[in-house]
Each structure stands twice: as C-alpha cells, then as structure tokens.
Protein: Organic solvent tolerance-like N-terminal domain-containing protein
Amino acid sequence: MTHRKPRYHLFGLILVFLIPVPAAAQNSVTIIDADILQTSIIDGQTVTRFLDNVILSIDNRTMYADSVYQFAAQNRIQAYNIQIETENEIIWADTLYHNTFTDYSELRGRVVVESDNNRLFSQAMDVSMPRDITFFLSPVRFEDDRGALVAESGLYYQQADSAIFRGNVQLADSTQYLEADSLFMNRSTDLYELFGRVYAQDFEDNVTFKGDYLYADSSGYRLLTGNDAWLLDISESEADTTHLLAKKIELMENDSVSTMDAFENVRIWSNEFSAVGDTANYDNSAERFVLRSNPVLWQKNIQLTGPVIEVEMEDDDIRFLSSHPRPIAVQEDSLTRRLHQMTGDTLHAHFEDGSVERIIVFNNSEIIFHIKDENEEPDGLIELIANGSSTLFFRDGEFDFFKAEENPDGSWLPEDPANVDRKLSNFRWDPGLKPYRPMLQLPRLPQIPDEPLFEFPPRYERYLSEAEDED
Structure:
C-alpha cells in the first residue's frame, strides 16, 4: 500500500467579481453616450430612458447597454443586454436590476463574467455590496484553462473569502475529479469541505476516495468519513491494488510527514493480503502499518490473529510482520486442508517474493503441525511446546520443517479422527471474516459537459470574435 498526497488545489478559481452597482449620488453616474434620452411618466412614476448604444460610467466602471431605465422614486435601475467593464473583469448579462439605495444588484438571463484567469456562467446572480455577498441562484459554471467547477447554486462571501456551492457539485481538471452534494471552501486558509455522496479521484497518484464527508486544509491534513468510507490506492507500477474501508480515514501529508490512519470497522483488501481490525496506522516513509484492537490478517492460506500486528512492506509485498502478545498463526495445508497452528508470546514472520519463508514464535511457544506420508496423505500430527523460541520453515509458502529451542517437549499422535481437530487454547480460524475484493466505485454524476450552460449573449459573442481576430 503506497499512499501519496491527494491534491485539492481547486485550480485557483477566482470568485471575487466586482459587480458594478451605481451609487445613489448623482455625480457618481456619468452618461457618456446614448442615441435617445427620454423622460416619461409610467404608472405615476418618473422614468428616465436611455435608449440605443448606451454608455455609462459608474465609479470607474463602464457599462454598455441597449437600453437603461432609471426609476428615481424607487431607487431602481434596469438595463438590458449589458456589458460592464471593470479593472479586472468584464460582465455580460441579458438584464441588470439594481437598487441604488440598498446597493443590491440582480443579473438575469445569460450571465457571463470573464477575467484574465477564469470565466463564470450562470442565469441568475445577485450581489449585495454592503454585505459583500454574491448569490448564485441557478446552475453556475466556473472555468479556467485547466478545468471546470459546476453546481446548482451557491454563494460567495467576499469579506471571509469563503464560498458555498450546493447541488451536484463537480470539479474536474487534468489531475483530479471531485463530486459531492455541497462544497464549502475558504481560499485564504486553503480549507475545503465536501458534504454528501463525496467522490474524489487523483489521476496523478491513482488514489480514489468515496464517503459522506471530506475535509482538506493547508497543513496537508485530510479527513474522510462515512459508514463505509472507501479509499482505493493503485501502486505506481499498477501491479497492486489496495482497498481501505473504515468509518474514518485520516491522512497527513507534508514535507516531514506522510501517514494514514483508519478507525472503526477497518477492512483492507489488496492483491497480496487482507485484514480487519478496529484501527490501522500507516507510515508511508517507512512502508509500515500497524493494526490494533485484535486484528486479523490473511496472507494466502495463513491467518494471523493478535492484539497488535505490525507489518513492514517492500515493493507492495509484505516483507516482515510481527504480533504480540500471545498471537496465533494458522495455516491451512493446501493438500489436506488440515490446520497447522503456532503461538507464543511474540511472533515474527519473514517473507520472500510474496510468500512466507519462516515464522518464529518466541517464549512459551506451542505448535501443532500435521504430517503427510510419502503419498501426501494425512499421517497424524505433532504437538510441541518449548520454553524458548520455535522456528517453522516453509518451502514455496507451505510448511516444511521446524526447529525448537530451550526445553522442547512434544509428542506424535497417529492418524485418528479424534486427533484431526485438536486445537491450541487460543485457536482462531475465521475465513468468514476475510474481506472480499470490494466493488470498484464509480462517479455518480455524468461527466461535466464541454458545452456551455446556454447560448452566449450577443455582446459576448462579439467579444470572443474580436479576441479571436486579434490572435
């Protein structure tokens, strides 16, 4: 199992849009041009109409529109087919409604906001300047050169530099894909939280997550939770696949630390081994993980059970494992299906090329191993105890012979049905607990379409055409 840092940079989407809002003061609005200027009474209200090729300057912003209607008594301005140019963005919309008293703007129809780095598309966007909040009331799409973020609605709070997106949130670029029911992000602290039906893929590191909640911050800390929070890790060679399931998975990745911890109903499945337990701790730099709270580990036809199991990996294979206190290892003979058993105060197992090479049980060792005759048929068993250590040697992963030290004492029991099921006092054999290979989890939502949310407004089409001609 090789853990590498998942990325959640969200490709620097800029959410600060300076939506132009005319101030109430008369001298803050400058009429640069309009083909027609009319004043009339409509429903008892004085309405000033600027028609055809309207250009206004509002607080260092320039607005172009087909028409602008000013309702002075209601402190309201309506503008149609607009283009607004600011220092950092250009904004297009079919309609702008602005309250000059509350500084509240509503952009409707085909809304486009473009800056040097990204573009925004929506059909309903409100801006409250006093509260520094932008509301996205209909599906919204952000784009930059690397990817896109889409959601059904959202809001951006400029003062806190925070955004919330809700409803089928998706984010995709060349390195990652994320989806969730909602997303909270704070750019200044580099903090991201995804809620509900979370799915995340890191294409560069071949890591996939699925759960109910995902948290990430600038320290390199990641938290994934859910009834069956799921992490899939594919090795760099793509020869080994590891599935990790738990109620809580924590990852820490920075310049000095690379760890992963899993808690509650932990299940691990890989091409080389599988395990269950209540807690798992993995140190990527040392390629070492620890299972706690009476875990069980299976490697081929061997089951190891103990209060604590420590595993050292090398090239995605188990190289060495140890367990204490008083663990028990059981191996099912591949021919006779009899169960070899070994226990002691501490157990060490050494592996070579993915197969067990020898197992050493230290202090107060006990062994039961079943014998075969020259025809590979069952031929009784040997029971052995020793004050010191006992070593069992394996050939091609199968038990071969043993060596015992310090006052060994044993006996041979002939082949007899009464002896077949003899067990050590702490015997455990639980093939029913062994995890199956989990089903591969796939995204819930369809791929983010390349097509825009709507046909572009005329002024934006003209802007794109002129930009293309300049290139």
Observations:
- The two ends are 49 Å apart (CA to CA).
- The longest strand covers residues 45-58.
- Confidence is low (pLDDT under 50) at residues 2-27.
